[in-house]
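Structure first, sequence second, as always.
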């Protein structure tokens, strides 16, 4: 095969990167194919001239050549010229009935270019492309363009269908496989990586595939791999600003230094007159690395390059919102949405900002809580003391004070929380930390008792500290691991705990080593992989602190702030090579859970029924058959084999229920404690424990159970009323007052009784002035309320009861 010479633009790209080569081009091509080949090689000036020449020659390729020329001018940043060319092409159509399928394809491309100045033209582009494939269903380019346009306008289902139509005809089509991978990435599917690899297998000569693989590697903080794929993409398409942005991000985020970033920026500025997409790609990569201030800064550079670029405006807006710059964030988001009204994320976020504008703000010494008006006061009563205590604890741990006030947004609809964090409904997380801006689900955003609200808030605040100490450079595995560890330090039972699924994954070798813990977060293969990654990362942090001390954790975080990266930094701080560190940590985990690993067994023993799950199943069968002694024996065997198991419905809960059936509340409470002391989401077990302890006159034990339960249901007025009673019986009057305030803040049906109970609690706490104010307000609403009258007399006597 004859190879053409390397043109100046392609040579420029090759000089900037290593390992790349321009595409080979055969001699036997149509004129339009030859022009496109010049473009693929980076010979932009020659490609431009060839397309311009073809666009002036009447024939079947004229319109497609003209559309391709307009598209090339747009890709080079010459927007006005591109729009003029596209408008001229569209204007030549006088009788649509005379158009062939290729002409409709050309019109679709031209209308897509015109969409840069008038978003409504995207609809015309869609109609033209639809017409093209309707006339010629075998027109692969038409289906591919449809898929690209749908995905560009955030319509993943239709994009998938368009790519699927191509794959139905040609299962090895690399562009369609790439399209599917991009759809999966858009949807946040962990299968995106495998799909991108499949696209690469179909063709290694597609720039977009390497660009996507570069992004995935960058997100996994695998900087060398990201650079290799970005360079390969650029060698295949020197105008791929996404690849250039990723390459610059590797230098800026991966420790390559400013020189590599500046070199990439300089080359891009010569290739493109308005390289806003380069800066937008760089800013988006920074945001995915939690570098929100850097993301905003680079987005501003994109706007400086092209003030009308919707993407750069949107990236700036979203990162300003993450930084708590709500007013400027909204202004820039509205400007972006005006230019791109199909952007679902931006539309959702603008709607959300309208809702948040009606929220109530409650401020404390170091926090600003923004919550729905009906919930704000009650939630603040419980959360502010916890957050203030957490702040003090974490300051001591990390020797760092984040700037205040820290903004915490609370959403009573999980879909709203998802929009705030990723722009689309469906995020599975409970909270997110952008640094000094946090967002979490309100307790009512999920089913009652579905998660522990207190531990979630503590977890997110811990991120504020680790992000701050590290200059937002801490890798995800370390930040998440430390947050889960801080949960466990905060309260007994908080934080992740070992599950049978975790031990099975560990036994089967499905958990990544310490040196690759990030894979569990960014490249999960199963739904449970992310949960296992959180727990595994927390174990790694716990082990490192126990082995090398808290100062080693601090030095690691500081090392990231100074530009260090994980392998070298771990070796420098801990004095252990990565491979040896992996070996030691694996040995530690397997020794710590030796009994549990034996219980879950190997794959072979699980098939033979001699494992923990089989014991549970035998117990359940016996229970169903009414054979309590056999059920008890099976559950005891299961608990003995895996004593740390604390999942709901597990052996400890089953044994508690059997003991209770036998009238043995002492044993029932002992079994329940094995659940409630470990599982911070065990709502039913805590409820039962509180009831049993109250029945036995153990107000202190009942109060402890209700305190745990209150973090799962902090807006349950009945729970807080019972908690106040238990607190009063133990002499904890301050806690009783707070619980009574929570009840009253939710505007209960019997507000008079609730206010009287608050007055009573205040009197018991020795705050006569506040008690008098509340009892007088009670009597204003109910003058004949005898208990309130008696309390007022008591207060007037100086607190002495008659």
């Amino acid at each position: 095969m004859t190879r053409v010479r390397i043109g100046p633009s392609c040579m420029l790209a090759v000089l900037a990167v290593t390992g790349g080569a321009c595409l080979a081009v055969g001699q036997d091509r149509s004129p339009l194919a030859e022009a496109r080949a010049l473009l693929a090689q980076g010979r932009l000036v020659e490609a431009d001239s060839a397309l311009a020449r073809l666009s002036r020659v009447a024939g079947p390729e004229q319109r497609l050549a003209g559309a391709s020329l307009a598209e090339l001018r747009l890709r080079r940043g010459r927007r006005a010229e591109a729009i003029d060319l596209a408008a001229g092409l569209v204007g030549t159509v006088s009788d649509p009935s005379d158009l062939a399928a290729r002409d409709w394809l050309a019109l679709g491309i031209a209308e897509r270019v015109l969409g840069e100045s008038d978003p409504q033209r995207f609809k015309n582009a869609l109609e033209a492309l639809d017409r093209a494939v309707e006339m010629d269903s075998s027109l692969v380019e038409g289906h591919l363009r449809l898929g690209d346009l749908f995905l560009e306008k955030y319509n993943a289902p239709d994009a998938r269908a368009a790519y699927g139509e191509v794959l139905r005809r040609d299962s090895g089509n690399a562009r369609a496989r790439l399209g599917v991978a991009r759809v999966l990435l858009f949807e946040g599917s962990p299968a995106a990586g495998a799909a991108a690899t499949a696209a690469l297998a179909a063709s290694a000569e597609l720039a977009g595939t390497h660009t996507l693989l570069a992004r995935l590697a960058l997100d996994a903080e695998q900087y060398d791999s990201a650079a290799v794929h970005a360079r390969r993409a650029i060698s295949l398409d020197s105008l791929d600003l996404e690849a250039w942005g990723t390459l610059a991000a590797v230098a800026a985020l991966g420790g390559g230094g400013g020189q590599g970033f500046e070199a990439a920026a300089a080359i891009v500025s010569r290739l493109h007159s308005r390289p806003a997409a380069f800066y937008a790609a760089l800013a988006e990569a920074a945001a995915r690395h939690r570098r929100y201030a850097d993301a905003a800064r680079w987005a501003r550079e994109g706007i400086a390059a092209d003030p009308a670029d919707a993407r750069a405006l949107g990236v700036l807006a979203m990162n300003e919102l993450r930084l708590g710059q709500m007013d400027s964030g909204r202004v820039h988001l509205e400007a972006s949405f005006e230019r791109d009204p199909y952007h679902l994320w931006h539309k959702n976020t603008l709607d959300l900002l309208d809702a948040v504008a009606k929220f109530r703000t409650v401020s404390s010494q170091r926090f600003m809580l923004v919550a729905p008006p009906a919930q704000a006061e009650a939630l603040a009563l419980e959360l502010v003391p916890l957050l203030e205590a957490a702040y003090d604890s974490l300051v001591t741990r990390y020797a760092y004070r984040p700037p205040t006030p820290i903004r915490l947004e609370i959403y009573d609809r999980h879909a709203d929380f998802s929009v705030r964090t990723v722009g689309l409904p469906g995020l599975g997380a409970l909270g997110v930390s952008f640094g000094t801006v946090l967002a979490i689900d309100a307790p009512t955003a999920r089913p009652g008792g579905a998660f522990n609200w207190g531990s979630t808030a503590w977890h997110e605040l811990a991120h504020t500290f680790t992000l701050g100490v590290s200059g937002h450079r801490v890798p995800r595995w370390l930040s998440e691991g430390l947050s889960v560890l801080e949960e466990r330090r905060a309260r007994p039972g908080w934080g992740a705990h070992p599950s049978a699924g975790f031990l099975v994954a560990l036994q089967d070798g499905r958990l990544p080593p310490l040196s690759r813990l990030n894979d569990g977060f960014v490249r999960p293969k199963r739904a449970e992989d992310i949960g296992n990654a959180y727990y595994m990362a927390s174990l790694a942090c716990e082990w490192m602190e126990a082995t090398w001390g808290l100062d080693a954790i601090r030095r690691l975080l500081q090392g990231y702030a100074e530009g260090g990266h994980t392998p070298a930094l771990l070796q420098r701080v801990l004095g252990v090579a990565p491979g040896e560190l992996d070996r030691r940590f694996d040995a530690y985990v397997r020794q710590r859970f030796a009994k549990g690993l034996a219980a879950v067994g190997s794959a072979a023993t699980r098939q033979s029924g001699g494992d923990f799950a089989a014991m549970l199943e035998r117990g359940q069968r016996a229970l169903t058959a009414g054979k309590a002694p056999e059920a008890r024996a099976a559950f005891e065997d299961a608990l003995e084999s895996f004593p740390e198991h604390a999942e709901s419905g597990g052996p400890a809960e089953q044994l508690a229920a059997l003991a209770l059936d036998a009238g043995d509340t002492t044993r029932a409470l002992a079994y329940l404690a094995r659940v409630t002391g470990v599982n911070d989401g065990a709502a039913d077990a805590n409820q039962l424990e509180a009831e049993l302890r109250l029945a036995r006159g153990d107000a202190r034990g009942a109060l402890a159970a209700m305190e745990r339960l209150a973090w799962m249901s902090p807006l349950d007025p009945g729970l807080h009323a019972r908690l106040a009673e238990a607190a009063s019986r133990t002499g904890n009057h301050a806690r009783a007052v707070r619980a009574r305030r929570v009840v009253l803040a939710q505007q209960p049906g019997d507000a008079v009784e609730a206010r009287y109970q608050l007055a009573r609690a205040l009197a018991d706490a020795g705050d006569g002035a506040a008690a008098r104010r509340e009892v007088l307000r009670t009597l204003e609403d109910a003058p004949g309320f005898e208990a309130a009258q008696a309390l007022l007399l008591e207060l007037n006597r100086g607190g002495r009861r008659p």
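Margin note: The chain is about 70% helix and 5% strand.
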